[in-house]
Amino acid sequence: MTAEANPSPLRLERGRQAAPQVFDHLRERILALDLKPGEVLSRVELMEQFGLSQTPIRDALLRLAEEGLVDIFPQHATMVSPIDLTHARHTQFLRRSIELEVVRTLALAADATVVATLTANLDRQKAMVNTEDYQSFWALDQSFHRAMYEAAGVPDLWRLVRSRSGHLERLRKLHLPTPGKTMRIHSDHSLIVRAIAAGDPDQAQRHLRDHLAGTLGLVDTIRDRYPGYFRD
């Protein structure tokens, strides 16, 4: 992580503790692959970048380490962690288990307001399909799934899954630019919403299972394309 010459400190929000803000900023950059696996995070540079002392920087890095997003080597360096495929598969198992129940719950209720909320998100996704603005499409994908958790009354489980998803999300980010991938995601989401609207929990679960299987089924291809990004 190379600091620019005389960088201006990033502005932090007043009234919020500094360490959580540093954590949020670095986490988003790691998940977006702006900070790539294996990249060194200099504490001195981070202190200059944020205009902070060592303590909040250390606390933010420790939280990132707890999520498996950085590896801390005492007295040596802190590095963005490689993608751990075992961790990604475990997270996928957790997420699939929860979301199968989420879509079942929504389909059994078949609430028109929920369907309208999800459909509005789908419309925004569709507008992004043929662009190369993958970051914006990714944000819509995340908000689609978060909306389902919230509609099912389990928003805390979304936060739990998110806190475990760093390796899986980076793997999915690497897959997203593949030609046709955004169109496939939009199509999968549309099928899930149709099943929810029709009050068909079995179909909703089937489409959800198919949707979540895509990226991990192509791990070898993705790993061959980005060989330095993965833990041996």
UniProtKB/TrEMBL annotation:
Keyword Disulfide bond tagged: no
Q: Which residues cross the membrane?
A: none
**UniProt keywords, alphabetically:** DNA-binding, Transcription, Transcription regulation
Which Gene3D superfamilies does this UniProt record tie to the protein?
GntR ligand-binding domain-like, Winged helix-like DNA-binding domain superfamily/Winged helix DNA-binding domain
| Family matches, as PROSITE patterns | HTH_GNTR
One of the Pfam families matching this protein, by short name:
FCD
* GO molecular function terms attached to this record: DNA binding; DNA-binding transcription factor activity
Indicate the segments forming the HTH gntR-type domain, all copies. Answer: 16-83
Which branch of life, at top level? Bacteria
Q: Does the keyword Transcription apply?
A: yes
The record's section on PANTHER family has: GNTR FAMILY REGULATORY PROTEIN, TRANSCRIPTIONAL REGULATOR, GNTR FAMILY
Name of the protein: GntR family transcriptional regulator
